[in-house]
Amino acid sequence: MPANMSYQLQIKRQSQLPFFVYFLSSILLPGCAVMKEPVEPELVHYEDQIPVRVHQQELESMKIKVENLEKQLAEKEALIKRIAAREQDQAQVIQASSSKEIARTQVKLHRLATKPSSASLISEAEVSIEYAKQQLTAESDIELLEEAGRLLDTAAASYTQSDYATATYYASQALEFINMVLDKEREQPNRPTIRFNTPIILHTTADANLRREPGRHTLVVSVLNKDTVLTANAYQGNWLMVQTDENMQGWVFNSLVSVVVDDQR
Question: pTM score, two decimals?
Answer without folding.
Answer: 0.59
